[in-house]
């Protein structure tokens, strides 16, 4: 699967109300697919027909027929309960990894994991994967489409050609690379403080010392002075660590906002942390930019809603939009002409979800707000009413 960018509006007017002239802002919105997630089962059919193997006599499939087989395998696994078994296996493997071999219950858990692996090997998706394991066309996808070095060059080329004023990225796990690239960084940045140098988080054997542990998450992302909201302990970080070892640029994926340095400057950076019962953290990212020529300001907000086309996933998406029963926290830093300082949101703003956070910015006077996100939802999904349904959702 290849994700393409969206350029929002050829000329999207953003006006400061007390000025007669209009300033146009062009924004590019793009989920670029994290490098660390690129080998996590993503498929593309650019190279078709698709053969089962390099054997000249192997069966061939048209792109539509191949993707139909994939969809049918997914549906079959969901109907048989295999998808749930995969989730259970993932959870128990994590528990097993953390347990000491001498701990009580270790042997039982190890046996349970082995049994689940045996059962999930009967998955229709696993069977399909094994069937096309030696497909030259799918190997070519990994080599020529998903390979990060090639994707980075293409992403950079598209952005520089499109020439947007602001970019909202999701699933970016190479913030450092974008910031040090000569061509890209000559025009764009995501650092609100140019004296700072971005560094990926440090993870240790003792999670209490991790830069992005739950109690340190906010302080780390605020101190980094980057318009970047990472997902801590992300799969992107995990998969890249396994693949690239101890490479110094391994990072979590998350949402980032870049802007043209020559025409815009940041004046406020904020984050709304999504409630979580686990060690993982993620946040909605909000940035206020000032146009250098006109002094007009505007807000850019971006986030990445949970993925999945099952009803429960749609409920998860609705829950992060509006959930008054959860504990939401937001913090920000503002520039006061000399330095960046943390300030509370005005009027003790009480946020109960992403919708209320966006509404807070939209109701500010003399400014406009752009909300660009990967909503992971489609009009074709059946309507679902969450338990916390209100006018905010």
Number of strands: 14
Helix-strand string: EEEEHHHHHHEHHEHEHEEEEHEEHE
Radius of gyration: 23 Å
Report the mean per-residue pLDDT as an integer.
Answer: 87
Give an overview of the whole structure.
This protein has twelve helices and 14 strands. It has helices at 63-80, 82-98, 106-120, 124-131, 136-146, 148-162, 175-180, 182-185, 217-223, 235-244, 311-321, 354-362; strands at residues 6-14, 23-31, 50-51, 60-61, 166-172, 188-189, 228-230, 254-260, 264-273, 283-291, 297-304, 329-335, 340-342, 367-374. With 393 residues, the protein is of the alpha+beta class. The chain is globular, with a radius of gyration of 23 Å. Strands 1, 2, 5, 6, 7 and 8 form a six-stranded mixed beta sheet that branches. Strands 13-12-9-10-11-14 form a six-stranded mixed beta sheet, with helices on one face. A two-stranded antiparallel sheet has the order 3-4. The model is unreliable at 9-21 (pLDDT under 50).
């Amino acid at each position: 699967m290849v994700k393409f960018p969206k350029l929002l509006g050829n000329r999207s007017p953003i006006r400061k109300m007390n000025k007669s002239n209009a300033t146009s802002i062009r924004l590019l919105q793009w989920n670029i697919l994290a490098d660390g997630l690129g080998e996590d089962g993503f498929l593309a059919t650019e190279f078709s027909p698709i053969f089962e193997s390099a054997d000249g006599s192997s069966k061939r499939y048209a792109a539509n027929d191949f993707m139909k087989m994939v969809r049918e395998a997914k549906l079959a696994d969901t109907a048989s309960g295999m998808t749930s078994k995969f989730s259970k296996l993932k959870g128990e493997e994590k528990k097993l990894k953390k347990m000491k071999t001498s701990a009580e219950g270790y042997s039982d858990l190890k046996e349970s994991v082995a049994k689940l692996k045996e059962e999930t090997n009967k998955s229709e998706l696993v069977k399909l994967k094994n069937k096309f394991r030696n497909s030259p066309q799918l190997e070519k996808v990994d080599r020529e489409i998903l390979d990060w070095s090639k994707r980075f060059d293409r992403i950079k080329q598209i952005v520089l050609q499109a020439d947007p004023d602001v970019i909202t990225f999701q699933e970016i796990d190479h913030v450092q690379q974008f910031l040090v690239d000569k061509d890209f960084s000559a025009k764009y940045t995501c650092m609100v403080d140019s004296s700072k140098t971005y560094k990926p988080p440090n993870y240790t054997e003792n999670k209490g010392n991790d830069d992005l542990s739950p109690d340190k998450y906010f302080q780390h992302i605020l101190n980094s002075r980057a318009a970047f909201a990472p997902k801590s302990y992300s799969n992107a970080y995990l998969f890249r660590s396994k693949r690239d070892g101890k490479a110094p640029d391994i990072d979590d994926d998350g949402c980032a906002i870049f802007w043209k340095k020559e025409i815009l400057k940041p004046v406020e950076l904020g984050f709304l942390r999504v409630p979580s019962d686990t060690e993982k953290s993620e946040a909605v990212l909000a940035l206020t930019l000032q146009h250098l020529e006109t002094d007009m300001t505007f807000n850019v907000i971006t986030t990445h809603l949970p993925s999945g086309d099952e009803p429960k996933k749609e409920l998860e998406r609705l829950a992060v939009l509006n959930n008054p029963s959860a504990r939401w926290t937001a913090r920000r830093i503002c520039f006061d002409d000399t330095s960046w300082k943390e300030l509370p949101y005005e009027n003790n703003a009480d946020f109960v979800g992403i919708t209320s956070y966006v509404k807070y910015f939209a109701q500010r006077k003399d400014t406009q707000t752009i909300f660009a996100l990967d909503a992971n939802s489609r009009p074709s999904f059946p309507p679902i009413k969450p338990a916390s349904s209100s006018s905010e959702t």
